[in-house]
Amino acid sequence: MTSTFPSRRTRLAALALALLTAGPAWADRLADIKARGSLICATLNSSEPLGFQDLATCKTVGFDVDTCAAIAKHLGVALDLRSVSVEARIPELALGRVDVVAAALGYTKERAQQIAFTSAHYQVPIKIIVRVDSGLNKLADFKGRKISANKGSTPELYARRRTEAEVVTFQDPPAAFLALQQGKVDGLALAAPSAVRYVNETGGKFRFVDEPLAFEATALGVKKDEPALLAAVNTALEGMEASGEIDALWTKWYGPNTKYNLPREKKLTPISTFE
């Protein structure tokens, strides 16, 4: 007699398929954040003024750190700050080790295939720093030359994409700039907010190439398939923009009373604008 009931193996296979199908729907990192009572936010720790160590307190401070703290406050939770290297930003998100990355994370279509981006909270040019007497004045001049950049950064990406130079990568901006100082490379590719201090603090020995590599939209990163968290962070950013909080943080770290004196030229912009 043939049973009309499914076999145990068939039932288990169906259950496994249902679990796989339903799994993503169960994932809700925002709920996890609320339950744990803290937002795990990753920043750099050697990129002044975005995220760097305060020598007096040995704590990581900076624009990105304050941005993380403000978002955590808007979400009603504490901040759990983590340090991350440039090349580890996307893997840390993908592995679920952090909730949000605020670490000079420039938007690219390639990165958007791996992680979700919030709205862009600022946009800056990526510039090349050279020695004053280098004779290098435009991107075409770097053919056959060497340019240093942070490993895994958008300056590295655009230096490879827009010049015919050999790109030499380093773990952080100080190391990349040291290579330029020592004459091991001919230029350093870096986003303007970080690059300004190197030009301003070296006694007129270095300057910017007039032609920028790119104009970079910078946002925060969230793991893909977490729409509730992405929406909550965007809502927090919108509230911060409307209240002037982002402008205040920018003025604190980049304004006229700092060594950078950089204006925040563009307001919060939906990331769909750049897709």
UniProtKB/TrEMBL annotation:
One of its GO terms (cellular component) is outer membrane-bounded periplasmic space. SUPFAM superfamilies: Periplasmic binding protein-like II. Residues 1-27 form the signal peptide. The keyword Transmembrane does not apply. Residues 38-257 form the Solute-binding protein family 3/N-terminal domain. It holds the Pfam family SBP_bac_3. InterPro entries: Bact_solute-bind_prot3, Solute-binding_3/MltF_N. GO terms for biological process: amino acid transport. Keywords: Signal, Transport. Belongs to the bacterial solute-binding protein 3 family. This is Transporter substrate-binding domain-containing protein. The lineage of its organism: Bacteria, Pseudomonadati, Pseudomonadota, Alphaproteobacteria, Hyphomicrobiales.
